[in-house]
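Progress report, Aim 2. The chain analyzed during this reporting quarter is listed below.
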Amino acid sequence: MPSGWRTDRRTLARLLVGLWIFGAGEACLVLATLGNSPWTVLAEGVSEQTGTGIGEVTIAISFVVLLLWIPLCQRPGLGTILNAIVVGVAIGVTLRAIGEAAGPLEIRLALVAGGIALVGAGSGLYLTSRLGAGPRDGLMTGLHARTGRSLRLVRTGIEVGVTVAGAVLGGTVGVGTLAFALLIGPAVQLFVGLAGGLGAPEPAPET
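Predicted structure tokens for the chain:
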């Protein structure tokens, strides 16, 4: 069986906890109402148009993105499938558990900062489990391999396109979106280091 599907209980627990923390961080950004991360902007926009919960839409989008892996010859791992499911579930559960959290600007800014930190921490645990790229990371690396463009250019193009599409559909874009874009990279780098490092180059974190 490919290494991306083989694991032990400790590594599986690390992956699941990381993905749950990741989803909870995304939910904090939604609750702050100051702008979501790009893919959550899209999920919120689709949610607005369909009346479906953001968590459920996130899961659906993840599997649509996985279909795009086929022509790109990308291979999923256990982490890929669990990423597609667990992050969306965590977003939905967190939103329902906390409810309407928007309030004074100070609280909303704290939610943005906390959300970015949680996504960074979750990414650190998820990436260092080495059980396969998440759906969006795989799309990025697949397009990079197919087009020969730099990862930075491909990732930026994806994020901008997703943000614009989500905004047109009614998703929330704002200072939180900008803060996420600027700070998630350093946050992930910090938490990957704290989690023991990757040991080899890995795809960029999912946003």
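The chain has a mean pLDDT of 86. DSSP finds eight helices and no strands in the chain. These observations will guide the mutagenesis work planned for the next reporting period.
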